[in-house]
Design a protein that fits this description.
Length: about 180
């Protein structure tokens, strides 16, 4: 199944379902994307729950050629980002962020990231147990790339992570890292 945009600018439903054969999600019939050609990007996972972190790691790794770094709280995330913002080998190209963290919460981490010119270009995917409309709105207001409520079922969670892996590491083009000194001020 795939979704394509139709009738942009009209008030009707802008998406139509379709797809069959070898097309990849998000492509037109007859167009297929190469499988297992993930683009290199360091990934930062900010997650305090060991079980969720392990499941995330297993689901995202598949044929992963990317480096996955996990930190368990907001303060550690800010420290990691501050220390590595100028290091292209360590600075993440993609961040998965839980909102409900001990100490400095994910909301504060997201604000920190988006207020610093050397970090604000990094897509932040909020991956949390919260389904609160307030959290969703605040995350998008603070420039989260997307907001995902963690599915409670093990298989649904793994499926969601694999879908995110496909979109963010195979389809989307991530920005290159540019070193800027604003974090040191």
């Amino acid at each position: 199944m795939w979704f394509s945009c139709n009738n942009f600018g009209k008030s009707e439903n802008n998406f139509s379902e379709g797809g069959s054969g070898n097309s990849s999600p998000g492509t037109s019939p007859g167009v297929s994307l190469p499988q297992n050609h993930m683009k290199p990007a360091n990934i930062l996972l900010v997650e305090d729950d060991d079980g969720d972190a392990e499941l995330f790691s297993k689901a995202i790794n598949g044929t992963l050629t990317n480096k996955l770094v996990r930190v368990e709280d907001g303060e550690s995330a800010i420290n990691y980002l501050t220390e590595n913002a100028e290091n292209e080998n360590l600075c993440p190209g993609l961040i998965f962020l839980d909102l409900n963290l001990p100490g400095t919460n994910g909301r504060e981490v997201l604000k920190f990231i988006k207020q610093h010119s050397s970090l604000k270009h990094i897509p932040v995917i909020v991956l949390t147990t919260s389904a609160s409309n307030k959290d969703i709105e605040e995350s998008y207001r603070n420039q989260a790339a997307c907001f995902i409520t963690k599915p409670l079922d093990f298989h649904d969670f793994a499926s969601a992570i694999k879908s995110l892996r496909y979109v963010w590491l195979e389809v989307v083009s991530l920005p290159r890292i540019k070193a800027i000194d604003d974090l040191k001020s």
